[in-house]
Amino acid sequence: MKKLLTLLLALSLLLLAGCGPKTPEAPGNEGEDETPKTPITLTVGASITPHAEVLEAARPAFEAKGYTLVIREFTDYVQPNLTLDSGDIDANYFQHYPYLDWFNEEYGTDIVAVGEVHYEAFGIYPGKSSDLEQIAQGAVFGIPNDGTNEARALLLMEQCGLIKLREGIALSATVLDIDENPHGLVIREMEAAQIPLSLQDLDFGVINFNFAYQAGLKASTDALVVEDADSVAAETYSNVVCVKAGNEQNEAVLALIEALQTEEVRDFILTTYGGAVLPRF
User: Fold this and answer.
1) How many angstroms separate the CA atoms of 67 and 70, rounded?
2) What are 156-208's pLDDT values in tens digits?
3) Euclidean distance between the first and the last CA atom of the chain, given in angstroms as a whole number
4) Which of 43, 53, 119, 159 qualifies as a cystine partner to 70, CB 3.0-4.6 A?
5) What is the chain's alpha carbon radius of gyration, rounded to the nearest angstrom?
């Protein structure tokens, strides 16, 4: 009987030892959960050219940081900001500082820039006419109808001696600020994306680089004139990545800025766009 009690006691101790807490396994042991974390997805709105293309060039460096990039392409200048403001995308990359300021004031949004990427040269392209030196009276110019790009087009026309703007006016200029128009030019304010598609009905078009490029026009060979490299426009119209206010420190957004401002992206911009797009980093 005594032997039986001793045996039962020993078995009880063994069972208790088996149910006790286990010693944690050291990192790298077979019991460690090696399932990778789900990548954070960043959805960025962009104009097709060059913005979406530049984002694609930055994709490898960005996704190497553990993120996933989704590019949502837009063909106008209004929806990318409205979509960002509504929270349907995380960031956008299509606009410059003056347009951003104008849009926030016009639409009551609170969108902020978080990083500069590039600058695009505005150009005057031929339509029915091709000689700015022998310009006809009443020649028709198509220019963008959105606030800051209209001013930019008018400044370029002034740079060419085609018009003269009111003294002291610059980035807020409209057709109402034209002080001298010796050729009686007809200036038609249009949706920017429509100008390259309407050149057959215009004598000349003042066109944003991306819309010109999408239409098969190259600033280096097709434009009659482009903005001076040291012009007010060149110093002012850097294209920026933007977010809704409050998201400036979003880690994925900051990682995207880093990925965009690399030598690889710089080389892509310089070799792809023939000098019509210039890095700003």
Assistant:
1) 10
2) 999 999 999 999 887 889 999 999 999 999 999 999 999 999 999 999 999 98
3) 89
4) 43
5) 29
Residue 115, CA distances (Å) to 91, 97, 215, 230, 262 in order: 11, 11, 28, 21, 13
Residue 33 maps to a domain: no
Mode of pairing for the β-strands spanning 91-96 and 238-244? antiparallel
Cα(18)–Cα(116) distance, integer angstroms: 62
Write down the residue that tokens 């490898």 correspond to.
60
pTM of the model: 0.69
Which region holds residue 126: left if phi is over 0, alpha if psi is between -120 and 50, else beta?
beta
Query: Quick one: 134 and 191 in the same domain?
Result: yes
Q: What is the pLDDT of residues 74-87, one digit of tens each?
A: 999 999 999 999 99
Residue 48 and residue 138 in one domain: no
User: 145 with 216, same domain?
Assistant: yes
Neighbours of 280 (CB within 10 A): 16
The boundaries of the domain holding residue 168 are 123-226
CA distance 213 to 229: 19
Is residue 71 within 8 Å of 51, Cβ to Cβ?
Answer: no
